[in-house]
Design a protein that fits this description.
alpha+beta, 4 helices, globular
């Protein structure tokens, strides 16, 4: 069975915190909303275009949702779509891969590849 995966977009500074502290409590919007916002693969490019337009130095982390257990809740958001929200700090151990955000020729966000 395939591991359920979602994606977190982080600034370089936020990624550094996650790497060095082993956990990430959330971006300002996450802290305000009370959960860490994640996106599915299908939602990722729209999320970046809507919430991170014009920003550089972004990172994408692949998150193993099973590793987070009951902290993950699927809730309606943009356009009624269900998004994975994490009601706990995000541990580095839950990441399957991460890397700098890049796009393919069509403008879609490319997924990080585990090394």
């Amino acid at each position: 069975m395939k591991t359920p995966v979602a994606y977190k977009v982080l600034t370089a500074e936020q990624m550094a915190v996650l790497e060095h502290e082993g956990r990430f409590a959330g971006a300002p919007i996450d802290l305000t909303d009370g959960f860490i916002h994640l996106s599915t693969h299908a939602q990722l490019t729209d999320t970046v275009d809507k919430h991170f337009a014009g920003q550089t130095g972004l990172w994408v982390a692949s998150v193993d949702l099973e590793a987070l257990g009951d902290a993950v809740k699927w809730e309606p958001s943009r356009g009624g779509q269900l998004f994975p929200h994490v009601y706990a700090p995000l541990p580095l151990s839950a990441l399957l891969a991460y890397g700098e955000l890049t796009r393919d020729d069509a403008g879609n966000v490319q997924l990080p590849v585990a090394g």
